[in-house]
Amino acid sequence: xxxxxxxxxxxxxxxxxxxxxxxxxxxxxxxxxxxxxxxxxxxxxxxxxxxxxxxxxxxxxxxxxxxxxxxxxxxxxxxxxxxxxxxxxxxxxxxxxxxxxxxxxxxxxxxxxxxxxxxxxxxxxxxxxxxxxxxxxxxxxxxxxxxxxxxxxxxxxxxxxxxxxxxxxxxxxxxxxxxxxxxxxxxxxxxxxxxxxxxxxxxxxxxxxxxxxxxxxxxxxxxxxxxxxxxxxxxxxxxxxxxxxxxxxxxxxxxxxxxxxxxxxxxxxxxxxxxxxxxxxxxxxxxxxxxxxxxxxxxxxxxxxxxxxxxxxxxxxxxxxxxxxxxxxxxxxxxxxxxxxxxxxxxxxxxxxxxxxxxxxxxxxxxxxxxxxxxxxxxxxxxxxxxxxxxxxxxxxxxxxxxxxxxxxxxxxxxxxxxxxxxxxxxxxxxxxxxxxxxxxxxxxxxxxxxxxxxxxxxxxxxxxxxxxxxxxxxxxxxxxxxxxxxxxxxxxxxxxxxxxxxxxxxxxxxxx
Length: 513
Fold this sequence. Notes:
Layout: H1 2-37, H2 66-77, E1 80-85, E2 88-93, H3 96-105, H4 117-122, H5 133-149, H6 155-173, H7 183-198, H8 208-222, H9 232-246, H10 248-251, H11 257-281, H12 291-301, H13 312-343, H14 345-358, H15 374-387, E3 396-397, E4 402-404, E5 407-409, E6 414-417, H16 419-423, E7 441-442, E8 445-446, H17 465-482
Parallel strand pairs: 2-6
Antiparallel strand pairs: 1-2, 3-6, 4-5, 7-8
């Protein structure tokens, strides 16, 4: 009898043992995750979170809609809310007073970019946009100096923008009034300006190498196939990339669309590497042609690569950062501009009238015309406000335990500044959800607005702000000088008020008779 009982117990234990071990392991991991990520005293309020994935599944997994989902939590919890994206503790800051406090008065505690496995895989603290510390300081200072040396703020660079505006107008004119998708043509034109600085050349719009570069950059940024309407690709890639941050050692071996993004990033790096090889062959340090040549000179000054960020990896990543920042945001804003003009014909007519009065049709627009064209300037600013290109700004990380509005922000917390809410704040804007250039006008003159921050503020504000502002004015005014943009006949009027930044597949066709 005893032998039978012992045998039965052994059989039950043999079955339960692996299950018990697995259950115990899961409980241990959940408790460990809770202890590691539990919120300290006086931490900003926020919604409940799941172990490991945090609040990820409380949002639409389309990354372009993330900022929209956040607003419901802002309404519930206030201007400082805590959210966990995977295992990354984050705080979203809303409202001009708090944003200004973080990005200017307390900025020394918020200069760093957050270090995540995804960022380490792609950037590894290199380049301009996602680097921190000495690397960021050296690369930003160098980029600003190089921009200045190659014409920023001078007539030479403005003439390059004007020349490219002519090429863009010619390309649009070739459509002869037929419906067309403006995205590719605009991206070609805008990208050529930054290409002239980084690569020392512009590309023809039908150049195969150039088109491949634009296609790859678009796919990497938007997590989707170029000109694809298959929205789930964006959702799946965003989810897998987020899970990669939680389980990097596992995800790096698993197939999926996250691996596709990584492969495309490597292709982009290879493109710049090939451009570097081409430059090396006829590099003359006495006559630098572009950003790459100038970087070579700086590398030669620092042969010991362990004490400086001037190395080939930083050259590749800084070049790509300039290319991305100098292409996507400006081209997306110009696409928004054409959409808003096609929807608001009365606004477009006023822009045309101001161009006729100030510039006429005998010469090209220049930045010197901006002060004499308050309405056109106001329209461009309103497009930026409504277009909402970078809705949550670039992320920051708390570098030392800080207190903000009575709440404790522990070191290592990721900080997101809520530009979506700022640019739609009813306390700041008379008609926050409607396209209204009067927001930037007072008694017929252009009016600056403190709560308008498309380029951010502080030491990590967009280094290309001056270039982008010049491009937006010259490209937009040049196109308005030559064309009238309308939705195609018999097509539904495009809805533009509450869209995220425009993906290529979301842009309706336009006509410019």
